[in-house]
Structure formats: structure tokens, C-alpha cells
Amino acid sequence: MKKNVLISGGSGFIGKQLTHLLLANGFSVSILSRSDKQNTLNITYYKWDIDSLYIDENSVLNADYIIHLAGENIAEKRWTTTRKRQIIESREQSIQLIYTVLNKEDKKLDAFISASGVGIYGAINGGEICTEETPSVNDFLGLTCQKWEAAADTIESLGIRTVKIRTGLVLGKEDGFLKKMIPVFKLKLGSALGSGKQYMPWIHIDDLCAIYLEALYNKKMNGAYNAAIADDTTNSIFSKTLAKFYDYSIWLPNVPDFLLKLVLGEMAKIILTGRRVSSDKIEKLGFQLQFKNLEKALRDCLKV
After folding, report:
1. Which residue, 275, 277, 271, 278, is CA-closest to 74?
2. Average pLDDT, integer, range 17-36
């Protein structure tokens, strides 16, 4: 009988790609959805509503694994006080719903794998390479990831193997943050942001999904793992590399800090600061990243 993987956030960019990979590897897939959706031959949908604290308990009871991707998009809107609360609560309360069912029914999963972010290391610009042992930072990004992972740790307290995937910027085909950049670069109007010196820890969508698959299979995986390429890509390097695919060299000056802060407010931290991140921990398990070269990764995403 096929093992069932329940995915929260399964209709998003990462969730869709991951669903295809899981099905191709012989798993059955269930997806938690806020809207009523018709089951397909391969996918079962279950209703949940985080705001009203509702979840169809059968979704959890029928699962062998849970992959938790749900959470408000950090970069979608300005960080008002209300928006910050929504971002954090969407991560904490969604896991709390799952925890409540597991605890009440004494349900044991084979594993619980939760998304997290490299933002746990804070909005920094130094050259230090962050490992999973690097202390977290209490700015908004860091605090959000801390609370996200603390919520996941409640699942671990039930005796369930729990893995936290600290994800960098995800490069994907026709989606992800590249989707917002491509129109500008196609017009040959792209340029670096701020100083351009801020590091951009990135990962190809195929490698990220493969890490989630590895977390299902590999019982040695437990705790936090960075999912980002350990290279020296800065915003300036990234911008210049992307421009090459549209046959031009960057000619515009960098977009100044003050303008980005004016438009984005505090959220500008996401693009004006960065961090270098090590992938040694996952690779020492024998996992091989397929896309470690930025140009190769972009070529695959842009289909050129």
C-alpha cells in the first residue's frame, strides 16, 4: 500500500512541484485546502481554515507523513503591525491545528517535515557563513522563523521525527521570485539593488523538492537543515548573471536603498540584506545538489 503524504500549502509554487515529485516516487498525496476542491485520481483534498481553527481530522489520521509548507507570504505586502501578526500566526496556528489532532488521537507519523527559512539567521550583511548551529537573531525575519520552528518542535515532543528545512531564495521555472524579476530584465532595465553586495542564498526548486523527498526516506534526518547553495552570490552577481540571458550588461545604476525603503518600508530588509549559508550538513548525509552553479540553474529555469 502506498504511503500517504499530507501537504499543507500544497497549491503553492513549491507544493505543486513537490506533489509531482512525490507522485512520481510512488507516494499518494493529500492536500489541505482552504477552498472546496474535487479529488482527482492521484490527489485527495481536505478542508481546513486556520482563521476559524478548523481542520478535517481525517487528513491527519490518514497521513503517514506531513509536509508543512503553509504560511502567509512574507514578501507579499508591507510589514504593518497587522501583517506581521498574520505572518507569524499563520505559521504557529496552522501547526497547532495539526498538533491538536495528533495529540488527541495519539497518532504517530513516520515524520513531520516543516518549511522554515534562512531568515532565522537575521538580516545581516557580513561574510560569516551561517550553519545550523549559528545563533538565531531577533529581528522580524529571525523571530518569525524561531516561532515557526518552535511550533514544529511541539510535533517532535510527541515522539515524531521532525525535520525543519531552512530555505533560501527558490529559483523556479516561471514562478517564485524570478517571476517578478524577469519582466524588468527582459526590457533590459534590470539592475542591482542597494549596495549590491548583499549575499543571496539561493536554491533551485528541483533541489529543494529533492531535499524534502530525502527527509521522507532518510531516518537519520532530524532537526534543522539549510537548503541553500553555499556560494558567494551577491545581488550584483545575480543581477549581472540574469542580464546575460537577455543579451545585455547592466547599464543602470543600482536602485538606491532609500527608494526601496520608501516603496517597501521595513520589508526592504529582505532584499537589502543577506547572508551566506552553508549546505554542508545535508551534503554530509550523502545528498547531492544538482544545481550548484548559478548560471546553470538560471539556464534551466529560463529554458535557454
Report:
1. 271
2. 95
- The domain ranges of the chain are 4-171+201-228
pLDDT of residue 138: 85
Residues 124 and 138: their CA atoms lie apart, in Å, by 12
Which one-letter amino acid corresponds to residue 89? E
How far is Cα 173 from Cα 206, in angstroms, rounded to an integer?
Answer: 10
Helices (H) and strands (E) in the chain, counts: 11, 13
Segment 6-30 mean pLDDT: 95
CA–CA gap between residue 81 and residue 227 (Å, rounded): 29
Q: Which CATH superfamily is domain 4-171+201-228 in?
A: NAD(P)-binding Rossmann-like Domain (3.40.50.720)
For the record, the C-alpha cell of 56 comes out as 478535517
* Residue 148, Cβ density class (10 Å: 0-12 exposed, 13-18 middle, ≥19 buried): buried
Report which DSSP code applies to 53.
T
The residues near 247 (Cβ < 8 Å, ≥ 6 apart) are: none
* pLDDT tens per residue across span 49-76: 998 999 999 999 999 999 999 988 888 8
Gap between the terminal Cα atoms of the chain: 40
CA–CA separation, 53 and 50 (whole Å): 5
Closest CA to 54 of 100, 103, 91: 100
CA atoms of 119 and 79, how far apart (whole Å): 15
Instruction: List, for residues 134-163, the tens digit of each pLDDT value.
Output: 988 888 999 999 999 999 999 999 999 999
261 within 8 A of 246, measured Cβ to Cβ? no
* Confidence class for position 85, pLDDT limits 50, 70, 90: very high
Give the global pTM.
Answer: 0.95
Strands 28-33 and 4-8: parallel
Amino acid, single-letter form, for residue 125:
N
Side by side, the strands of the sheet bearing 202-204 are 175-176, 169-172, 202-204
